[in-house]
Amino acid sequence: NAGVTQTPKFQVLKTGQSMTLQCAQDMNHNSMYWYRQDPGMGLRLIYYSASEGTTDKGEVPNGYNVSRLNKREFSLRLESAAPSQTSVYFCASFLVTEAFFGQGTRLTVV
Amino acid sequence: AQSVTQLDSQVPVFEEAPVELRCNYSSSVSVYLFWYVQYPNQGLQLLLKYLSGSTLVKSINGFEAEFNKSQTSFHLRKPSVHISDTAEYFCAVSGGYQKVTFGTGTKLQVIP
Question: To 5 degrees, how large is the angle CA B27–CA A36–CA B10?
Fold first, then answer.
């Protein structure tokens, strides 16, 4: 039982480069979320998808885009990376209000 | 709107001593409350949850939390901590379907 799988686990980008973080879940959940975690700030919601075909902005969406490719997959794209986007990114899928998290992607933008 | 406050960013405690991690919330509707644990270099895992019924909820590894509506609190306690409990703990509140707000986390450091 894989649960929520994120790739890659680590990434270093140069300022201005783009990349896509991948997330897939095998629990047949409708809802999927992207968070970023920064020291002392807890988890902040970037974007979420309540169901296949829908996406909505969260608390800190600027500089990011998302795609809900199908029920299993929800990707996060950085079009032009900035040092302020250095963070640990977590994908989660939800069963009602209970969250199931991936292992995270540690992104450094230099 | 809903919010969660975890006043203690770090809590050091000696092994086998009791610990309490504090969580206060605000919400305009009835709430569901959660504690998640994050071990180093891992994602968050659900530790325990309050949805309804008994206000005292327990985890399989000895933690417990009590929902106190009048004080809007959901503090996490353990009577005797172990080294393996060293982790960061996040309180979370949900006032409705899937809208979950996380606190800023409390790092529990268990000292041998």
Answer: 70
